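tool=predict chain=A
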Amino acid sequence: MSYDLAGVTDRGVFLDAVTSSLEGIFPSESLGWVGFHPTTGLLEIRGTGDAGDPEVVDAVSRNMFRHPQLLSYTTTNTIHPRRISDIIGDRDWLNHPVFAEAFAPWHAKTQLSIVVTPVTPNSWNGWAFNRNHRDFTDAEVNTAAAIQPLLVAFNRLTGLASPHPDFVARNPLTRRETEVLQLVSQGFTATAIGYVLRISVLTVRKHLENAYEKLGQHDRLMAVTAAARMGIIHIPG
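tool=predict ok
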């Protein structure tokens, strides 16, 4: 992980590199960075699988203050890694509203979390790993605890994990919406974008519609121009 991150100064590259390394340690159906910014009130999820999908982000945002893991972190005053199964029984979890709204629709059942900053009801940053069928083992929890200081150190030393308030405030788009708009600026069609990102054309168009609405624009050219002016995307010269 240290080798992969040597010399990295771009935030997206940093998060993607850590995600890739962690995926090799904790194989999961979906995993990635989760951060909640207290000033803007925005939740960011970036990673593999469904992570970053607007519907996932919306579902988690609506339910995050009821999430058993978040409640556990804020009431125990410790950031030691933990599984949902460490906090709530299987039957209660399967009947929990957070499971029904934020996990079940995307076929996720178990979760392991590693946070890199103290957790409060208004701010947290860390990594989450989701599996569909099997829980994380005690050995994996111990591994998570062993590498947590490294992740905390990377977060503190690079300053790349937690987004700068100005960046979050000026970029209202999700990671996927930004990716789609960047490809549009490069001349890709919706079909080509779907092929590159491995999503359907309908999903591409939905991301574009969301981007138009958030940027207050009505077509591709105007949205691309606005996003470039805000520094969200880069238009090839």
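The chain has a mean pLDDT of 83. The two ends are 34 Å apart (CA to CA).
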